[in-house]
Automatic annotation (TrEMBL):
Residues 9-20 have a biased composition (Polar residues). This is LLM class flavin-dependent oxidoreductase. Its EC number is 1.-.-.-. Coiled coil: none annotated. It comes from the Bacteria. Residues 355-366 have a biased composition (Basic and acidic residues). Residues 1-21, 341-366 are annotated as: Disordered. Keywords: Monooxygenase, Oxidoreductase.
């Protein structure tokens, strides 16, 4: 089981003091959070991709390449790579380069994002969102696995005898998660390729998450990649912790009430009841997170959103200390006890390379 944090990179005013960090401060804060994730023993740091204020994460590979040079162990990922508005050729080359620089500590999550205007900014039509996601990923999948590609589709110019460079490290493409909160077509796409499915369920009730993951698992088995309970599933989550739960609620409430994505909607208590948001003690976070398994089965990756809504960096780092020291060790132990032996771990570069070498040895023996 992999545990980590993801950032949406929002630049938001702290409602308790009226201070808004600069873009430079926010970018440097994300780097500090990524390094802190490794320091406290987490497995993954992931960043989103946005091209509009108030977000600053417009170039994930630049951010992750910089972090790679300052870390040794942690997996570097995206929590969204816009498969609809990025050229799949550029994705193929950018992430292969990042793979080499990071020694294989790279995977990525494909998504369509949540900002409609991004489509025309990059010359695309939002009404073609699903077809773009399907076609662009089909090309990307080939670019990483075929040395020479001839290709023609609807949304970009044809390719003739094209080779993406550099080639994936060790001949092993980065592992791909397909992220979606609402589109069954994306769950189907993940299942078709045998890739991972990440349901960022931070705004959704448990029943919706359960239906989406169940669909993915059923189709994963249908396409012959393994049993339904062996499909590779990841979940999002949101937490705010203090030793005492009342202190956590009191401290987080002004951030919740004024955050761009929350303010003016349901109360903190209503939102916490309807979604995975957990504001309380470390034990409450442990109990709530262990309960996710009841809805989705055994899963491989849990990412938490912690640096949003104007929370100061000092507070976020305190949260990560609690996560690394009191929450994740217990979750690792408890999830490991529950997971059957036939359910795989989350893929890594090392495990994918070992699979490749076994397959090559088997073919040679035949």
């Amino acid at each position: 089981m992999q545990f980590g944090v993801f950032s949406v990179s929002d630049v938001t005013t702290d409602p308790t003091n009226g201070r808004t960090p600069s873009e430079a401060e926010r970018i440097q804060a994300m780097v500090r959070i990524a390094k802190k994730a490794e320091e406290v023993g987490l497995d993954v740091f992931a960043t989103g991709e946005h091209h509009n204020p108030p977000f600053v994460a417009s170039s994930p590979t630049t951010m992750l390449g910089y972090v790679a040079a300052q870390t040794e162990r942690i997996i570097l990922s995206t929590s969204t790579t816009l498969i609809t508005t990025n050229d799949p050729v550029k994705i193929a080359e950018d992430f292969a380069m990042l793979q080499h620089l990071a020694g294989g500590r790279v995977d990525l999550m494909m998504g369509r994002g949540n900002t409609g205007p991004v489509y025309p900014w990059f010359g695309q039509d939002i009404r073609q969102g699903i077809p773009l996601a399907v076609e662009n990923y089909a090309l990307l999948h080939r670019l990483w696995r075929e040395d020479v590609v001839d290709w023609e589709g609807k949304f970009r110019t044809p390719l003739q005898s094209f080779t993406a460079t550099p080639r994936p490290l060790d001949g092993v493409p980065p592992f791909v998660w397909h992220g979606s909160i609402r589109s069954p077509e994306i769950a189907e796409q993940a299942a078709y390729y045998g890739d991972g499915f990440f349901h960022n369920n931070i705004f959704w009730p448990a029943e919706h998450t359960k239906r989406m993951v169940r669909l993915y698992r059923q189709r994963y088995e249908h396409y012959g990649h393994g049993k339904a309970d062996q499909a590779i599933v990841g979940l999002g989550g949101q937490v705010f912790m203090r030793k005492n739960s009342q202190d956590a609620v009191r401290e987080f409430r002004p951030y919740f009430d004024n955050a761009p994505v929350y303010g003016g909607g349901p109360s903190l208590e209503e939102f916490s009841s309807a979604t995975p948001l957990t504001v309380g003690s470390p034990q409450q976070v442990i109990d709530r997170t262990l309960g996710f398994r009841e809805n989705v089965g055994d899963y491989q990756r849990q990412l938490f959103l912690m640096d949003h809504a104007g929370l100061p960096l000092k507070t976020v780092l305190e949260q990560m200390d609690l996560l690394g020291e009191e929450v994740v060790p217990v979750l690792r132990e408890e999830f490991a006890k529950l997971k059957p032996a036939h359910v795989p771990d989350a893929p890594t570069h090392q495990s994918l390379l070992a699979d490749k070498q076994r397959a090559e040895s088997s073919e040679a023996a035949e």
